[in-house]
Amino acid sequence: MSQLKAGDLAPDFTATTDQGQTVKLSDYRGKRVILYFYPKDDTSGCTTQACSFRDHYPTIEEKNAVVLGVSPDGVASHQNFKTKYNLPFTLLVDEDHAIAEAYGVWGEKSMYGRKYMGVIRSHFVIDEEGRIVDAQYNVKPQESAPKALAAL
């Protein structure tokens, strides 16, 4: 699995939003994008990460940026998660983990000694032209938003 780095063109993708609409990463050209990947809606680390982006969102918006959260969960799960924590940004459905694979964040994980494939928590800061300016793999939930903000 190859990892993306600063200077790389961010892989474009098409995804379904938490509202059931279809978007492409390229729709956001002209804005900066914080694209973050998390394993599962409404789990402790993922909630910490999402709420941190929520709490930093006004500052992120001031910097001409949007946040897109990506996980393998479906639309209904995303809607519940978004409503429960009042998340002001879009969550994207990646049920076939194609986006995660394109960004090199779908990989082997282990929990309680059991190995399985899943999303490696990470984020990417993408500039107005669609280039990656910062890539963080295996980021800690509480450090993701502050690190992404620093990269903006």
From TrEMBL:
What sort of enzyme, by top EC class, is this?
Answer: oxidoreductase
**Keyword Transmembrane carried by entry:** no
User: What Enzyme Commission number(s) does the record list for this chain?
Assistant: 1.11.1.24
Name any Gene Ontology BP term: cellular response to oxidative stress
One GO MF term attached to the UniProt entry: thioredoxin peroxidase activity
PROSITE patterns associated with the record: THIOREDOXIN_2
Q: Which residues form the Thioredoxin domain?
A: 4-152
List the active-site residues: C46
Reaction(s) catalysed by this chain, per the record, are: a hydroperoxide + [thioredoxin]-dithiol = an alcohol + [thioredoxin]-disulfide + H2O
| Xref: InterPro entries | AhpC/TSA, Peroxiredoxin_AhpC-typ, Peroxiredoxin_BCP/PrxQ, Thioredoxin-like_sf, Thioredoxin_domain
- In the UniProt record, does the keyword Oxidoreductase occur? yes
UniProt keywords, alphabetically: Antioxidant, Disulfide bond, Oxidoreductase, Peroxidase, Redox-active center
User: What does this protein's UniProt record list under function?
Assistant: Thiol-specific peroxidase that catalyzes the reduction of hydrogen peroxide and organic hydroperoxides to water and alcohols, respectively. Plays a role in cell protection against oxidative stress by detoxifying peroxides and as sensor of hydrogen peroxide-mediated signaling events.
Assembly: Monomer.
Q: What is this protein called?
A: thioredoxin-dependent peroxiredoxin
Provide the taxonomic classification: Bacteria, Bacillati, Chloroflexota, Caldilineae, Caldilineales
